Amino acid sequence: LRVPGLAWGGAGGDPRPERGSAPCSWGRGFAGTREAAGALQGGARRVGRMLVVEVANGRSLVWGAEAVQALRERLGVGGRTVGALPRGPRQNSRLGLPLLLMPEEARLLAEIGAVTLVSAPRPDPRQHSLALASFRSQQEQGFQEQSALAAEARETRRQELLEKIAEGQASKKQKLEQDAGTNESQEAGGNPPAGENEASASQTSGEPEEAGSSSPQPGPSNGVTPLPRSALLVQLATARPRPIKARPLDWRVQSKDWPHAGRPAHELRYSIYRDLWERGFFLSAAGKFGGDFLVYPGDPLRFHAHYIAQCWAPGDPIPLQDLVSAGRLGTSVRKTLLLCSPQPDGKVVYTSLQWASL
């Protein structure tokens, strides 16, 4: 194993991004994060809303698109989208709201005052029938409204067609009268045979009858075909209203919605997460890479992860086999393994390891 960075057991090492990359704009120490959180709260007050994170069964969710954008751009907290897209519900390559936050992210945002953690009330199974009846009532109301609009549109179209039919009949009648006047003038100028006059008269008188019989007759106004239920437009909800009975959640107290409080593993991960975040790094989950966090020098949409962070308590032994496998895995995916260990004085010791194939 080659150690290009800090030595194991060094005091408060500082992992640095590679040359040519820049840390995030929020990496200005804790004072800078306070300013960013204050600006975020000020913007929330101006629009009359506070950024809210709903917590249920240990999962922290953000439902607002504006809140997700503000957390990512101003505070460097990205989370992970876990919701299905309305136009692509049968795929998981691209996901949408809500945004799932790691417990460390939710606690950090609550500590700096950027968000409010709330515990949403759980649905009561006894209220399921009432919710179903309300849904069916809303669906029936929507169908009645759509039926009325469809009938109105069809009646408007019917009146337009009746006007066109009346104009066509008047034009045809006028043309027949002109033809009849021409025939009378010809009879006054010359004397055609009587048979021809009778034939022309019978032909002239027969044309209006045929025209009248072939012209479509407007139906009754109440004969409009009703809208079938198969043509009902189903309305899909694109937003989730905030629960009225949501109560604030204290992350310092362990509960069913927040089981992380007081757990040694959570405290270990959080101390390292916060230290790296205050240094200006962007962090995400690293379960696929055998670590606790993926460490980015900036927004993951712009940068690749440079480190795979593993959290170890100061007194925990590290098996050599795990150390070698983690180092080889990190090198194979072009990342550096970062061993993180918090100290009693609050500082965090970092050791970066890379596999050197000899």
Widest beta sheet: strand line-up: 3-4-2-1-5-6
Q: Give me the count of strands.
A: 11
Largest sheet: 6 strands, mixed
Q: Can you identify the CATH class of the largest domain?
A: Alpha Beta
Count of domains: 3
Summarize this structure briefly.
The chain is an alpha+beta fold and 358 residues long. The chain has helices spanning 29-46, 65-75, 103-111, 128-189, 194-214, 264-278, 320-332, and strands at 52-56, 59-62, 80-83, 96-101, 116-119, 247-248, 282-285, 293-296, 307-311, 336-342, 348-353. It has seven helices and eleven strands.
Descriptive notes:
This protein is an alpha+beta fold and 358 residues long. The protein folds into three domains: 1-23 and 281-358, Trna Endonuclease, Chain: A, domain 1 (3-Layer(aba) Sandwich); 30-121 and 243-259, MutS, DNA mismatch repair protein, domain I (3-Layer(aba) Sandwich), CATH 3.40.1170; 126-231. The protein is 42% helix and 14% strand. Strands 3-4-2-1-5-6 form a six-stranded mixed sheet. It has a five-stranded mixed sheet with strand order 7-8-9-10-11. The longest helix is centred in the middle third of the chain and has 62 residues, at 128-189. It is elongated and about 125 Å long. It starts with 28 loop residues before the first helix and ends in a 5-residue tail after the last strand. The relative contact order is 0.16. The model is unreliable at 1-13, 16-32, 42-48 and 197-221 (pLDDT under 50). Keywords: Endonuclease, Hydrolase, Lyase, mRNA processing, Nuclease, Nucleus, tRNA processing. Pfam families: tRNA_int_endo, TSEN34_N. One of its GO terms (molecular function) is tRNA-intron lyase activity. Residues 211-223 have a biased composition (Low complexity). This is tRNA-splicing endonuclease subunit SEN34.
